[in-house]
Every structure is written in structure tokens, then in C-alpha cells.
Design a protein that fits this description.
47% strand, five-stranded mixed β-sheet, five-stranded mixed barrel, Jelly Rolls, 356 residues
């Protein structure tokens, strides 16, 4: 009898310990540096320190990624949030109600990819706050941006519940499903806060096609596959069956190509600028490019980039009023690369509205 009592106490202790360990993990995330570097400001500290792989992130901590850097937060139930370059994210609040977990993250600036696919540890409600949105989700994949004049959410899979906020007052409550977006440039935000009627939910277009972060996160999430290697930056070959629409490279003859793939990292289209010049910068994501051309809708004449050398990994095109390839109002730039055999890459379209 004494043995049975001792055994029962022992097993109860083990169960309680395991349960406590599990509960402790609910208010933490593990940070991994995918590329480059990041800073972490621990709650209570005034200055940030260099982030480390597998660093524990707790309520009140703030993460800041550097230029050309990505970092990922992993949560107890398998959910992940990847931070784009020059992104600031605050792990602001954790709460539990009726055994349901609620995590709130504040996207101060930059972009995040939310990959929320719960495992056996259970679901949690994730809230991501931007300047004018509070996005609640349980099981979804989406990209959210809080960049000046370019605040948005694109839902790739699943469903999200963005609330439009005036400070902490809910103005509109919406549901976004796979293939839908809400884009909130400054002009629309002003109208919304003035309680004017605005169209919020739209069908996703190809705005993000060719965007480096968008492509990289889709590969990491398994939406795009790599060929012959586990490295994300290597060959992007095929598209996994998914609701997300990816435009494959098409030759003028209609032939679908898979070899040469390009992307544009800056600016993020559609862009709005209040100056008389900008630089369009991009990368050769897959294959070997012999030349890169940019066509401006102001003259519809393809321009071959003189600074790009055959076999190069990146390209840059400068548009200014002085060069007569940027005008006041709407501008459209079409970027295409060619390999040595003359085969074309995918087409990336950059739209810029300029005022100067």
C-alpha cells in the first residue's frame, strides 16, 4: 500500500512538472537568425543587445532586424513569425482565458510573415497590431506590412480577422480569406479615421510577385519548392499546389520557363514617392542572366542596364526626372532578364506614383 501511494505521488509529481514546463513555454518564443543580424531589447533594459540564435524572447522584449536580415520567432505550438529586414516587432502581451492562449505582437515598422499551423500542442489566438489594424488569427498564413504609406495584409492561406482601429476603438471588423487583402495607404487611412466610406477587402493581385521577402518566405513555408538542396536561396523550380497565385516566367511564344527567375527588393510596388528620383533594385533568384532590361511606360522603350554584367547576382536601375525616365504621377517599370540563349525570365512590374 505504501509503495502504491509513493508511486502515485511520484507520477503526479512528474505529470505536474511536465504540465508546468508546457505552460511555461506558452509565454515565450525562440528567436532564430535566418540571415544577417538582429538586436533584442530585453524588457526593462534601455539599450538593445546583439541577438543570438535560439535566444528566448519573453513578454515585453523587442526585436529589430538589420538591413538584409531575416529572423524568425517560433512558438510552442509550431506557429512561426518571420521578420523582414529593417523590421521592429514588440512581444507585448500574453494572456490565458479558459485554457485559450492569446498572444499580442506589435509591428512597429517593417513586415512579417505569419505561418500559423498549430501542432498537437494546441491552438492559440495571435494578434498582430499595426498603426491602424489589429489582426487576429488562429490558423493561417499571411504577410502584414507597417511601412509608411504601405500598410497592408495579404492572406495566403486560411482566414484572418483584421479590425480597423482608431487608437484602441474598433471602426471596422472584417474577415479576410485566402487570396484576399486589405491595403491601407495614408490616403485611405485618413478617410477611414474621418469615418468616411472606404473599400477595405480586395482580391489579391500580383503586387508582391518578384518581392524578395515574399519569395523567400514562401519557400520556407513550403509554398515554393527548392530543387536539389535545402538552401532557400538556391534554385526555385516548381510551385506546390496552393491557393497562392504565382506567375511563372512566360516567353513571348507562350512557352513556360523555369530556369531564370528575378525579383525586385526595392521599392515595394505600388510605391509612392515625393522626390524626383528613385532606384529599382533586384536580384537574380535563379538561373544565370546575360542582361536585364527595364521598360518605362513613358516611352515603352526597353533599356538594357549597362551596370549589370553577365552572370551577376543583382541589378540596379535609376529613374530620375533629369534622366527623363520618371514623371509626375503614375509610372510603370517592367523588368525582364535574358539568359545567354535569349530566353526570358519572369516579368516584374513596379508601379510608382511620384510627386515633386
Amino acid at each position: 500500500m505504501i509503495f502504491l501511494v509513493i508511486s502515485a505521488i511520484f507520477f503526479k509529481s512528474c505529470f505536474t512538472s511536465a504540465s508546468n514546463t508546457k505552460n511555461e513555454k506558452r509565454d515565450e518564443a525562440i528567436l532564430s537568425i535566418d540571415k544577417g543580424s538582429a538586436l533584442v531589447t530585453v524588457w526593462g533594459d534601455d539599450s538593445p543587445g546583439a541577438a543570438a540564435n535560439s535566444q528566448m524572447i519573453l513578454e515585453g522584449d523587442k526585436i529589430e532586424t538589420a538591413e538584409n536580415s531575416y529572423a524568425t520567432l517560433s512558438f510552442y505550438n509550431g506557429s512561426k513569425i518571420t521578420l523582414d529586414q529593417k523590421t521592429t516587432l514588440l512581444f507585448s502581451d500574453v494572456s490565458t482565458e479558459d485554457n485559450n492562449d492569446f498572444l499580442t505582437l506589435e509591428l512597429k515598422n517593417g513586415r512579417v510573415f505569419v505561418n500559423q499551423i498549430p501542432n498537437e500542442e494546441g491552438q492559440m489566438t495571435l494578434n498582430v497590431k499595426t498603426d491602424v489594424m489589429k489582426i487576429a488569427s488562429v490558423q493561417t498564413q499571411y504577410i502584414a506590412s507597417n511601412i509608411p504609406d504601405n500598410e497592408y495584409i495579404y492572406v495566403l492561406n486560411g482566414e484572418a480577422n483584421p479590425q480597423m482601429l482608431d487608437k484602441d476603438v474598433v471602426i471596422e471588423n472584417t474577415i479576410l480569406k485566402s487570396g484576399q487583402k486589405i491595403a491601407m495607404p495614408d490616403s485611405k487611412q485618413t478617410s477611414l479615421l474621418a469615418r468616411e466610406s472606404v473599400t477595405l477587402v480586395e482580391n489579391s493581385t500580383d503586387d508582391l510577385l518578384g518581392d524578395v521577402f515574399y519569395t523567400w518566405t514562401l519557400v520556407k513555408a513550403g509554398v515554393l519548392q527548392t530543387s536539389g538542396t535545402s538552401e532557400v536561396n538556391d534554385e526555385l523550380i516548381t510551385i506546390v499546389e496552393t491557393p497562392v497565385e504565382i506567375v511563372e516566367p512566360v516567353a513571348s511564344t507562350g512557352e513556360v520557363l523555369s530556369g531564370l527567375v528575378i525579383s525586385v527588393s526595392s521599392p515595394i510596388s505600388p510605391a509612392t514617392i515625393e522626390k524626383n528620383g528613385l532606384a529599382i533594385e533586384g536580384e537574380i533568384v535563379n538561373g544565370t542572366a546575360d542582361k536585364v532590361t527595364v521598360t518605362w511606360d513613358g516611352n515603352n522603350s526597353p533599356y538594357t542596364l549597362q551596370g549589370f554584367k553577365s552572370g551577376g547576382s543583382s541589378f540596379r536601375f535609376v529613374a530620375t526626372a533629369e534622366y527623363k525616365n520618371l514623371k509626375v504621377g503614375d509610372n510603370t517599370y517592367t523588368v525582364i532578364a535574358y539568359d545567354a540563349a535569349g530566353k526570358v525570365s519572369n516579368t516584374v512590374v513596379v508601379k510608382v506614383n511620384a510627386s515633386f
